[in-house]
From TrEMBL:
The name this protein goes by in its record: diguanylate cyclase
UniProt xrefs under SMART domains: GGDEF (SM00267)
CDD domains: GGDEF
Record organism: Buttiauxella brennerae ATCC 51605
Any one cellular-component term (Gene Ontology): plasma membrane
A molecular function (GO) term: GTP binding
Taxonomic lineage: Bacteria, Pseudomonadati, Pseudomonadota, Gammaproteobacteria, Enterobacterales
Amino acid sequence: MPEIRSSQSELETRLKTMRRRAIISSGPWFLWINLLFCLFILGRHYFSPLPQFVNDTQEIPVLEILMGLILITSSSVIFILRMAHDPHAEWLGKLLHGALVCISVLWVGCFYLFLASGDSRIVFPFAALLIFTALISLYFDARILLSFTLPIWVVVLICNFVYPSELTMLNAVLYVLLAGLFESGRRILRGWFVLAISREQETRDLIKQLKMLANHDPLTGIANRRSFHLQLDKAMQRQQQCNMPLSLVMLDVDHFKKYNDYYGHQAGDECLIKVAKCLEDATRSTQDVVARFGGEEFIMLLPDATEQQAIEVAKRIQQNLQVPGIAHAGSPATPWVTISIGISTLQPGSSASRLIAEADAALYKAKEHGRNQWQTFTHG
Ligand SMILES: Nc1nc2c(ncn2[C@@H]2O[C@H](COP(=O)(O)OP(=O)(O)OP(=O)(O)O)[C@@H](O)[C@H]2O)c(=O)[nH]1
């Protein structure tokens, strides 16, 4: 049975999906931060006893307009994210990205106004706070993180030299140091994010592998007895609800002990794999279940199949077996592998165990009548 292990491209796809989900869940928090910073700037006259420079000489309150735009953008996106029908939709991630780029440009305008008016007191702490809160909420997506932080970073650094104050050099050095801290922090956090996603993917693969082992026969790869019983129970429930027909086909390889004795156990295993393939090829509906019932015994669950349809399946199996014509020199009957088939169809008020017993009885009848044939269970 093949081992289930995700490929690199599957992991990349998962990372992409998780990045989108992460941005949609942490984006609103960051938008709230932007909103609060905006309110602080708008109410700066109340917070700071120092004289204000920005807008003192301007007729149009540009700063207030910029802050208003950030407020509107942030609150509308928070609202849309809350009201969205599908909270993980791809367009939400794109909307958030677009909004963050706009907000970044508006902050650039705001910081420019402060620096150009010679008032750099809040620019550096504010820019640093914005950049680090962006790091906390967007570290898993370098593209979105940089498209928000880079414009602020570059413009504040340039303005620092174009509109110098006595703190210029110190600010610049601090800013470069912060850039180093920012990038190393981003790499560490991103590393943890990727590790968490790949561990989650490994766990998913493991669960898939365990499910596969629990439900499939390791030799032939078809369903095992446990899985067959689960599917039969489900089919019985559906049948009771919809009153649809349901048939079982039980199969046994003829003189298989002699096959093993003649060709060896390894060849016997290969023979069982080929028989399982023939059975699978004979089914038509995706609902049909082919299972290994034990040893050289197989069983087929045919939901929505009448007795006549089950007989057609049995005939197809016999035809399929003749096509590869698996040689059976040790057989006292035919020189190739044949199977005996028992068919039962669910009767009103019957049960799963009775249906299996009836298919078994029909199989026994086929064996009794000389093997290499199908028989149906005849009631009363
Ligand atoms: N190679 C191989 N043989 C198996 C496997 N499981 C069961 N068998 C063999 O299948 C044979 C079943 O033998 P019997 O129950 O006597 O059935 P039979 O020889 O087919 O006789 P009839 O069914 O009456 O035709 C035994 O020899 C088992 O060892 C398996 O996984 N691989």
